Amino acid sequence: MGLLILYLIGVLILCVAGIIFISKLSRKQNSSTKNIKLKRRKDPYLFLLPTLILLVFMFGYPLINSFIMSFQHYNLSTPGNIYFNGFDNFKKLFSDSDIWLIIRNSFFYVIASVTGQVLLGLILALTLKKPFPFRGLYHAIVFLPWAFSAFVIGLIQRWSFNGEYGIINNLLINAGLITEKIAWLGTPGLSLLVVIIAMIWIGIPFFGIMILASMQSIPADVFEASYIDGCGPIRRFISITFPYIKPTLIVTILLRTIWIFNSFDLIVVITNGGPANYSQTLPSYMYTKAFSSYDFGLASSLGVMLIVVLIVYVTIFLKATHYNKAGDF
Amino acid sequence: MNHNIKIYFWGTGRTILLIFFFLLVVLPIYWMVITSIKTNKEIINTQEVTYFPKKITIDNYEQLFKLYNYRSMLINSLIVSTSTGLCVTILSIFGGYGLARYKFKGKDTMLLFFLVTQMIPAILVIIPLYIIFSKMGLINTRLGLFIFYLITNLPFCVITMRSFFERIPYTLEEAAHVDGCSTMSTLMRIVLPVMFPGIVAVFVFAFIGAWNELIAGTIFINTSNLWTIPVGLKSLIGKYDVKWGVLMAGGFCALLPTAIMFAFMQKYVVEGLTAGAVKE
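Output (structure tokens, whole complex):
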């Protein structure tokens, strides 16, 4: 039954694509201009129809479901026992003693990761600005983490920060910075820090690429003028480079913040939220709630809370920038 | 004199930074590769950590393929990622073209909708989708995973494609229209060849997005012969015993295709990433 519906959707999409194709190829050139105009008006909808159908059925519809579920008792371990329970899920959520710890973790995780990524990305872009030998090759290597899987990075991080066999402890001991091995992943506070380091590492190339590109769009004569006026490098950065890259910086930071807030695969791989929820963030907690206790109702109510936070954030974002000019997020 | 010192100072500073960023990227990968060619005894040694293996072995790689069926993970990942890449590319060519070349009712709403889909945490969609998929019999199928990757990658790719289309002057198409081309054949014959960088970039985005994804994979796929690489490798992290050598070997094999892809397509990918945000 289910598969049938899916095949129907698939066939529908194919049909639409086919109709567009055939109608365009076979359009008679001598048809009246009025006719062409009418067809033209439908064109964009036809072009976008497959994408929209997919997104509405597989994104919009689940989202509404999720919202409904947040007001339901919905536990997969007791199927058949699904009923509306008002705000019970939300009450349960806030009676959880760990929830404030998790909210605090989320904010710390996002702010620390974004700050680290922006600062290091900016420094990277500034170093790459002027040409040097083997620049192309260097770019290919330094931007590589962008293409890497967070999962594999998480594995490397978890292995390097391993308390007993890890290389980080070994290096720190050899450098004389510590005398005892540190249990990075088992210590509250430190485990989240390890996740943040991995997150910063992954995000540096993205900021580097974006900032470098916007720096390269600064007209050269502005810099020439500054040289003639005897401007130093720091002054040049504050008065020329920074104002030029500011719009890119704002858009990138705002969008990246949301992305970091939402992503939790690093957490799952490196610490799995531990020890005792000390490295848990809201989305990772939601994942744990949904797929270890199968309490979909509670998880959905957590999701609704996430949405509220994000809506506030997005409203500020839309006010601050023209959203349809922001091609990258 | 003073000037020379300054130049020297900034030059050295820059060289140090270049080396720093280089090592920052290379060292973790070096450590992964080195771990993967060590013997298990050398890896789990509390007394000393060797920076280079005393004895080089390919045991871990052999185990990976023989014991843990890495081949099937690789094939599953390839199937899902390639089909995601292809479908996203085709759909975003259509969608991007529609958004770039026409003014129509509801365009702004549509763009907002696309943007919003990017801001919603994936886990919020995964949970209800899990129920929907299990009703439709799509749990434990590559098709289900493919659908999920399709919808998560599509909005971003459509918007990227749109900004690529907007860079091509409309006069190029107008000329084709005057010469008697239909919209579709203009798209096929004139626009797409010029659009090659954009198409490559979008394909790479979607492919890498699907290749690297872990969470949805672990939720939607339970049977081991359908596992993708991240899901399969995650199952190797046991509660008490973690096979680090095998994991590092598997991780390295998982990075290779995306790294090679990125190295060759880097120019296009960078162009794709910056296509929208840089231009005002």
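Residues 60-278 of chain B form a domain with the MetI-like fold fold (CATH 1.10.3720.10).
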